[in-house]
Amino acid sequence: MSEENTAVKTSESPEELEAEIEQIQSQHKRYLSPKEIVAFCIVNLGQKNLDEFINTKMQFFLIQFFGLSSTALANIQLATQIYDAVDDTISGIVIDRTRTRWGRVKPYLILPMPLWIIATLMLFSTPDLTNTGKIIWVSVAILLRGLGMSYFGAWYLILYNNTPNLKERNDLITTSEFVKLFGTFFASTLPIFLDIGKIAGISEPSMYKTFSVLIVILATATSIYGFFNMRERIPLQSREEMNEVSVWKSIKLVLSNRPMFTLVFANIFNGFKSVGGAVETFFWFNCTGAYSYATLAGLFTGLPNYIMTPLAGKWMNKYGARNVAISGALFGGLAYLGMWLVGYAPFGGSFKSNVVMNMIWLTFALTVCGLPNSILRVTMPALTGDLYDYMEWKTGLRNEGLVSTVSGYFQKFGYSFNSWVGNMVLTWIGYKPLLDPNGMAIPQTDLHILKGLWFVFALAPAAARFLTGIAFMFFSVHGKFKKQMLIDLEERREKRLQALKEEQENTKESADVDAYNGSTENDD
User: Fold this and answer.
1) Which carries the bigger pLDDT value, residue 411 or residue 298?
2) Of the four listed, 123, 321, 360, 386, which is most buried by Cβ atoms within 10 Å?
């Protein structure tokens, strides 16, 4: 029997445990003010815009307009991500041991800002360089972004420190994910402006550069707003208590965390979906003939998310985050597989043969495939919160920074592989960028290349979803064990707060006695 199961008080029925945990949670007030909720959602929205813009547009821009080969980009991302993974371990230790008047993770909303601002602007510019110069330029930009995000990403840990109320935390996750649905709207309008710009004779590189500036301004403004309007509340170990546990011991405690590795593999497998996303712009432009079809489809494919996000929160509270995540991932795998079998142009010999019907079909298929997106976006942070609670329950230490970065260490190796594959598939299918005399992109007509783009676009996400669902099945923090764990944690936190209160009272009494003695001596 596992360690987790033996720790559960088997003498209590599930109903008794449920009643006990509800009684404990009912003693908590609602800690989060409306301003804090808004601030968290706004920061998330700004960061989502930035990530979406870079993740979906960088590859196409660098290959199509900057002139970097797909093989060179693949090797650059592989090398820089390996370095970034090492840096993440250092940043996790630094973040866990940070103690400032503003909190532990809030300062990292501001401090790394110059790094990712400079990196973003570099990635969407086209200086006149040699091939070697281009490789160096892109390598430096990606390294700067990785270093900045190693620390800036810590802001999200506020989610697990701003309230001790589990239900309030899950509600904030659901609310934030719902608001974040609007976060990609700004970045998703770029294809429309690109098509309009082509008609008006505006160069596409200048359009990308303008959008990169606007995205950076948005992300910067939201980060600053979040810094001044969020709080951290979970009682943490003091700097002295943290120093009593060596860095190496902390790392060993994290590496023995089995639920963490379950989520690591789930994230790695889920990240393989990015291989399909990497060719998304290539698919829409070459297989359908217009950038703006992507935006048009997105107007409809994203609509169910506004319903699925709040439903995911309700299902999560009723059936558990783990079970909801498994169901959503497996459904997504089946949906993508079915879409690939039918094809992207079932009405006519090519997409343009019957644009209207093919567009309707493709939009419908992508809408069905996207139904689990919101489910996974809501359940993954909730499962991560369960992981941090489990780490505190098992070791007595709340090492979110180290847990996050050690898990990120392995995930970045997976991300490096996924990024490498996402770039190399273009080489494997023989994709070559075509430009007219004015530097405007021209769609490919080679049937082998078009089929290859569709294969990657549809089947990479299918494989990712299936593997993610299987990985979630091994996550052990759920059900009866999780309920008892939360009760134990509540008792420990109350004792810690009581001890701090007594220490403060004793310190005050000691100070009063010293003051009295000093006063008596003066009288004498």
Assistant:
1) 298
2) 321
Residue 154 clears pLDDT 80, i.e. is over it: no
| Domain residue ranges of the chain, discontinuous segments joined by + | 21-230+246-477
> How many Cβ atoms from other residues are within 10 Å of residue 340's Cβ?
19
Non-local CB neighbours of 86 within 8 Å, separated by 6+ positions:
409
Considering only 141-150, 179-188, 362-371, which range has the smallest mean pLDDT? 179-188
Q: What's the rounded Cα separation, in Å, for the pair 227 and 16?
A: 41
Q: In this model, does residue 524 exceed pLDDT 60?
A: no
CB atoms within 10 A of CB 371: 17
Residue 135's identity, in one-letter code, is I
- Name the pairing type of β-strands 434-435 and 441-442: antiparallel
| Distance between start and end Cα atoms, the chain | 71
Q: Could you identify the residue written with the tokens 């990403």?
A: 153
Question: How far is the C-alpha of 67 from the C-alpha of 78, rounded, in Å?
Answer: 19
CB atoms within 10 A of CB 425: 23
Indicate the pLDDT class of residue 461, thresholds 50, 70 and 90.
very high
Q: What is the DSSP letter of 158?
A: G
**Cβ neighbours, 10 Å, residue 348:** 12
From start to end of 397-462, where are the E strands? 434-435, 441-442
Q: Report whether pLDDT(409) > 70.
A: no
What's the confidence (pLDDT) of residue 83?
73
User: Is the Cβ–Cβ distance between 275 and 425 less than 8 Å?
Assistant: yes
Chain position carrying tokens 């169901």: 327
Determine the Cα–Cα distance for residues 417 and 410; give it in Å rounded to an integer.
Answer: 11
What residue type is 424 in one-letter code?
M
User: Going by C-beta distance under 8 Å and a sequence separation of 6 or more, which residues neighbour residue 519?
Assistant: none
What are the DSSP calls for 308-359, one per residue? Answer: HHHHHHHHHHHH-HHHHHHHHHHHHHHHHHHHHHH-S--SSSSGGGGHHHHH
- pLDDT reported for residue 399: 65
- What would the two tokens of residue 413 be? 């190796």
Q: pTM of the entire structure?
A: 0.60
Report the range of poorest mean pLDDT among 213-222, 398-407, 430-439, 479-488: 398-407
Q: What is the pLDDT of residue 9?
A: 41
Token readout for 140 is 């430096």
Q: For residues 514 and 517, give the distance between their C-alpha atoms in angstroms, rounded to a whole number.
A: 5
User: Is residue 301 a contact partner of residue 359, using CB atoms and an 8 Å limit?
Assistant: no
Half-sphere exposure of 24 (CA within 13 A, CB side): 21
Neighbours of 343 (CB within 10 A): 16
The three-state secondary structure class of 442 is: strand
Q: Considering only the C-alpha atoms of the chain, give the largest distance between any 2 of them, rounded to a whole number of Å.
A: 106
Candidate CATH numbers 1.20.1250.20, 1.10.10.60, 1.20.1730.10, 3.30.450.20; the one for domain 21-230+246-477: 1.20.1250.20
